[in-house]
Design a protein that fits this description.
By secondary structure, this protein is of the alpha+beta class. It has four helices and two strands. Helix 1 packs across helix 4 and helix 2 crosses helix 4. It is elongated, with a radius of gyration of 30 Å. The two termini are 17 Å apart.
Length: 137
Amino acid sequence: MVLLLCATSALAGTLSVEDAIRKTLRSHPDAQMAIMRHQSAVSDSKSIQSSLLPRIDATVGYYPTKTFVMPANGAFSTRQSDAFHADLTGSYTLWDAGRANDRYAASLYKNNEADFNRHAATNALIEQVRLNYYTLA
């Protein structure tokens, strides 16, 4: 792919090494996979970190027609009315034997590893583009 970019640039006009690097980093599958792995690791660590925070749940319900059936004097009478319901609950984990903290610390290591792999993939592609660029020139 890198060789193809350099070869097509020779036919289309001059392409600087910086342009070749920029186009390769934007379109090469290895660079894209490294970026996606890093983004996945960041979102995993944010998700795990949220388990350390308090949780608030809200439920609201509106029932436009609710029929109440009531017996009166041996006959049933019905009454139509609207109903509204609202709940608000909160919870907080006081102690979980450090499991959430350990999972969060592990996710930060995964985040750092993904960041390092992204930089390594980027540097390897830059080196490959430079090598091909100056070899073909």
